[in-house]
Every structure is written in structure tokens, then in C-alpha cells.
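User: Small ask, check this?
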Amino acid sequence: MLIVNKLIPQARGLAAALVKRAPSVELGWDQRQKSRFDAADSSGRVIGVFLPRGSVVRGGDMLVAEDGSLIAVRAAPQPVLVVRACPEHGSPLDLLRATYHLANRHVPLELQADHLKLEPDPVLAEMLRGRHLIVSEALAAFEPEGGAYAAAPHAHAGHDHGHAHDHGHGHGHGDHHDAAHGHAHDHDHGSDHGHDHHHDH
């Protein structure tokens, strides 16, 4: 077994050629939120991952083995619920309210400008549909938000792409701005997926 005890978030600092040549390992969220697990990479090697307690592995990260070899992490597609605002029966504010209520329940959430992702839960799905939201099932990578202690390395990576003036509280305002003002343009593309079915309830 190849022992891995180091993680390079989003492969920062590594040459693109090294990243491209590295074997990969595809992991679901259940595994990536653990600091110790076993897996097999794309070259057939069994790896034993031993990271510091509290570590979270994200798609795009690079694992470093004791022998110096690199293993690229891919987020495996998994069943998720995709939640969007309904342009006919609700408003974009419904998505913000849903985020608030789900966060109060400590539900792991992936936040995007025009939708949320969460792990399948029939009770939560019905609650969300009752709030005039469109809930559909999908197979997709799941990258939920972490607490400040876990998400900091990846959150800062986002600032490097054009929001360098935001150092801390400004990032949250940007997310809300996108959520509040971006839906009218995006939901026409996604609302057909199960929209009529879900609102028949």
C-alpha cells in the first residue's frame, strides 16, 4: 500500500504537465470528508490516505505519497438533489430562504449562483417543493461548503479569479448578489427538468 500524508489544495504551485501526467483517484463526498481512508488510483495502486484530523479533500486537490508520487483527486459523480427557484410560482428570494433553513439544520450544501445541491433526502425534498422551489435528482460531483476552518484554502482560491479586493466578509455579499440577481437569466434553461412534475403536487 502506498501511504499518502500530504495534500496540495487545488494542485497550487505544481506545473500543469505534472498535474496532467499524475494518476487520479475518484472519490465521493462521503470519502473525501474523511482524513483517513483507503482507495485505488487509476494506475491500480492501493493508497492509504492519512491526513491531519479535520482535513477535507476536494476535487482538484493533489495527494502526495511518501515516495513523492502525485495522485490527482476527482470528485466522483453521486446522487444529489438540485434545487432551483421557480420563475412561475416563486421568486429568487425563495432560494436564499431555503439556504437559510437548510443551514439551520446543518445540511451540507453546495452553493451555486443559480442553484443549491444537497444529498438526497425525501423529507427535505418535499419541504423545498412546498416552498415553490424546483427540486430535481441528478448524478453530479458534490462539493459542499465547509466551515471556516475547512473551507479557507479553497475560498481564498476563488478570490484569485477577480475579486482580490474582497478579503473576508465581501465574499459572502458577492454570493448573495449572484443568487439574487442571476436567476432570471439562468432558470429558463433548467426549469424544464421535472418542473411540471414537481408542481403537480
